[in-house]
Design a protein that fits this description.
It is built from ten helices and seven strands. The chain has 281 residues and is of the alpha/beta class. It has a seven-stranded parallel sheet.
């Protein structure tokens, strides 16, 4: 697949993986529509990668506004659902509203935006939907019960959608499962009370560069991969272990859960460990 001349709409484009995807698609000759909540940050990305890109800020969970946003975007060749938020809190401590925020942002928002785009794509018998899930959409990772629930759900939705639209309407569906990427995802993650964590963690700091992640995603889409796992080392191993030896994986992750629970009982703040250490223990 060539991206040259394709009109590609990226949500969550103001930073991290979204901004890196904007740069990579622009370099490949695509015409961009960039969305997120922060107009100024989106404008800065556009100025750097494609000055004539369309900047279309919106709140992903403003359900009433979304039909109007879709009308403004116009005909789109590829929708990249990238906007999202993570979590760093134990389930036993997490308020219900935190789950609502995460599920609405990471699952319902991309589903609804996709649903609004589908009729036009089906009528044209062309189009492509890309959903950025996570390796946490395969694994039950500690401190991320809400995030894992949403990302597992997104994979299920996209897999079922692909079965309905790929051959029937010529619409491609690609699911992307990044591992740790050096972005602000951990710093912006929600704690048990709904506040932002405010700092990164070891997995993210040791993660892949956003530019490398974006290049892997573009290569996978161009090659026609329906599912792209963008992970290295222990994370890639764990993603495979979910199918090859799930009982072993469950035991490994439960041991990490026990460590965090013990930390909590002592009055400390449960902190994520390096996943390589978790799998090696």
């Amino acid at each position: 697949m060539s991206f040259a001349g394709k009109r590609i709409w990226i949500t969550g484009a103001s930073s991290g993986i979204g901004a890196a995807l904007a740069e990579a698609f622009a370099a490949a000759g695509a015409r961009l529509v960039l969305s997120g909540r922060r107009r100024e940050a989106l404008g800065a990305v556009a100025a750097r990668v494609q000055p004539d890109a369309a900047v279309l800020p919106f709140e992903a969970t403003d359900w009433a506004a979304l039909p109007g946003v879709v009308a403004q975007a116009g005909a789109i060749d590829m929708l990249v659902n990238n906007a999202g938020i993570s979590q760093r809190s134990l389930a036993v401590d997490t308020r219900p509203e935190v789950y609502r925020t995460i599920v609405e942002t990471d699952l319902l928002a991309p589903i609804w935006l996709t649903q609004l785009m589908l009729p036009g794509m089906a009528a044209r018998r062309s189009g492509h939907i890309v959903g950025i899930s996570s390796v946490a959409g395969r694994l039950g990772t500690v401190l991320r019960t809400g995030y894992c629930a949403a990302k597992h759900g997104l994979i299920g939705y996209l897999d079922a959608l692909r079965a309905e639209v790929e051959q029937a309407y010529g619409i491609g569906v690609t699911t992307v499962l990044p591992g740790s990427v050096r972005t602000q995802v951990a710093a912006n993650a929600l704690l048990a009370d709904g506040s932002a964590r405010g700092e990164s963690d070891p997995n993210i700091e040791a993660g892949m560069a956003p530019s490398a992640c974006a290049q892997r995603i573009l290569a996978g889409i161009a090659a026609g991969e329906r599912e792209i796992i963008v992970a290295e080392g222990a994370e890639a191993f764990a993603a495979g272990l979910r199918f090859s030896d799930p009982e072993r994986l469950f035991d490994m992750l439960a041991k990490e859960g026990a460590r965090l629970a013990a930390e909590r009982e002592k009055g400390g703040r449960p902190e994520p460990a390096d996943i390589g250490r978790t799998l090696a223990d």
